[in-house]
Amino acid sequence: DLVGILCLVSAAAALDFKYHHAEELEKYLKGVHAAFPSFTHLHSIGRSVEGRDLWVLVLGRFPTHHKIGIPEFKYVANMHGDETVGREILLHLIDFLVTSYRRDPVITRLLNNTRIHIMPTMNPDGFEATKVPDCYYTQGRYNKNGEDLNRNFPDAFETNNASIQPETRAVMNWIKNETFVLSANLHGGALVASYTFDNGNSATGSSKGYSKSPDDDVFIHLAKTYSSNHASMYKGTGCDNRQSFPEGITNGYSWYQLEGGMQDYNYVWGQCFEITLELSCCKYPPEDQLEKFWRDNKVALIEYIKQVHLGVKGQVTDKNGNPIPNAIVEAKGRPHICPYRTNEQGEYFLLLLPGTYVINATVPGFKSMLKTVEIPDNTGNFSALKQDFSFSEVSTSIRPRVSSCPKTPLYQDLTRASAAVKPTLHVLVLMTAMLVIFK
Which terminus of the chain has fewer Cβ atoms in its 10 Å neighbourhood, N or C? Predict the structure, then answer.
């Protein structure tokens, strides 16, 4: 009945600027899904140590499942339980998206061409444990087992002996089960957009105080997209006199080294470009500041999602047009230490800035195919450039078997392998990696 629907809509829309504890957060998300069932999907990807659901609201034209050609995007907040601004602004982002869909042409196109996953809290136990909101560090940073979730992922550089927590495991499985292309995780305690790598060694040039990924130019662009669309982050003033961040961005390692971080894990093992957004100098600010935080971040949050449409995407198929999963597809000169591969539908997505690139598709055991592409800036059209590959000599009966990329510190092996050659170490390492990948 109409009255019931109107009540639902008003329940979903009545989101005030205050902190929402576990029950209220769950009620709000369920209300949104009930009010907008055709373009939202609510599910829990796992449970915290204390048994709280890790809720994810998915928004898009096809919210329940991946659709070929539509990239997957995610925002994750509150992995440190006492860093609370991200948790609340993601609820307001949901509110903004559902109320703007089919009314605002830009948001409508964004949701029709992107599947957006929003996880307001990765550490609900830590949030509930933070009894006295504080601008500085509290015990609520950690999960119930006293573990820092942003030091808990497998690390590409060092053996990370942390025992994997339920919250971390849930996110790792989530990354494995979706084709995420772009992501950001929202933190507090500083005002800066930080990007991969957070850890490093000589293979990534970290001796120079900067740990550089093969896609450094894309990461700088992503971080600047956020900072330049934020009300003040781009000014780079930081939170005290000791810190300043030119243009409001920083390489993670340059700022401070950490192992077991979520953004490096996404990039190396998830084929997903993730940056870390530090959104407030105060970790747990008073409620009356939340509305300003939302206003300061609103445009940046939307502009950042649009970047999932950078670069090139396509399908790799056999002679009968069937998809080939696990084919390696990478841009020449940017080998990933864990080669980027097609998903079950034979799809690949590569984030690249506008320019000319050679895309190399390899089905193990067959000759590689190279295609030169001219990539425009397509973010305004909400679709990356499309470039498919068809392998006429491959038939579906031959499915490339592939062992998943080992969770060992991959970059450790690179430095060991070429320890004898000191001066041009990381150039050689990358060349070796390229040869292996492009053979």
Answer: N
The whole-model pTM stands at 0.92
User: For residue range 55-89, what is the model confidence (pLDDT) as tens digits?
Assistant: 999 999 999 999 999 999 999 999 999 999 999 99
For the beta carbon of residue 421, count every other beta carbon within 10 angstroms. Answer: 11
Q: Are 252 and 190 in contact (CB under 8 A)?
A: no
Whether 278 is catalytic is: yes
Retrieve residue 183's tokens.
Answer: 């992501």
**Residues across the chain:** 439
90 within 8 A of 118, measured Cβ to Cβ: yes
Judge contact between 286 and 206, C-beta under 8 A: no
Q: Give CA torsion, residues 94, 85, 80, 303, to 10 deg.
A: 50
d(CA 218, CA 312): 13
Is 22-309 a domain of CATH 3.40.50.80?
A: no
Q: Which CATH architecture is the domain 312-390 placed in?
A: Sandwich (2.60)
Q: 326-365 burial string, b = 16+ CB within 10 Å, else e?
A: bbbbbbeebbbbbbbbbbebbbbbbbbeeeebebbbbbee
pLDDT > 70? residue 120: yes
Do residues 284 and 133 touch, judged by C-beta distance below 8 A?
yes
Res. 238 pLDDT band, cuts 50 70 90: confident
List Cβ neighbours of 424 (8 Å cut-off, separation of 6 or more): none
Q: In the chain, where are the structural domains located? A: 22-309, 312-390
Average pLDDT (431-435) is 44
